[in-house]
Amino acid sequence: MSNKPLHLKACLSKEVYYHGEPIPVTVTINNSTDKTVKKIKVQVEQVTNVVLYSSDFYTKVVAAEEAQEKVQPNSSLTKTLTLLPLLANNRETKEIALDGKLKDEDTNLASSTIIKDGIDKTVMGILVSYKVKVKLTVPG
């Protein structure tokens, strides 16, 4: 790619978000390379860990946004993309964890599992967490 650095910083405005609440992700890119950043993609992934008999992980994208701006060589960009992970947008997605039944009106995507210190996570059965991922596309 290049001997010069490409710096990416992603910031959330707070630690905890609730059902139906938009998630603004502020992305700052400092492109010191001689390449152009062609695409900026931000997504929320639901990670489900089934710890009953073995530790199986299932990861599904539940919200995604893409920025149209390009970041030219030796330039910077700060952009906020807002994600809204909702069950309404994921009804056709297979293998996602829910709080309730899919046919019920008040069902949401599953809440994150919070485990207090000293609790054995294997007794929980299914652990759910979410992560925000930022991907940059740079040719060559």
Summarize the structure in words:
This is S-antigen visual arrestin. Belongs to the arrestin family. There is one protein chain. With 140 residues, the chain is mostly beta strands. It has a single domain (6-137), classed as Sandwich (Immunoglobulin-like). 0% of the residues lie in helices and 46% in strands. The chain is built from no helices and eight strands. The protein has strands at residues 6-12, 23-31, 39-50, 56-67, 75-83, 98-99, 108-109, 126-137. It is elongated and about 50 Å long. The relative contact order is 0.29. The model has no long low-confidence stretch (mean pLDDT 90).
Radius of gyration: 18 Å
- What structural class do you assign from the helix and strand content? mainly beta
Give a count of the beta strands, DSSP E runs of length 2 or more. Answer: 8
CATH domain class: Mainly Beta
Strand order of the largest sheet: 1-2-5
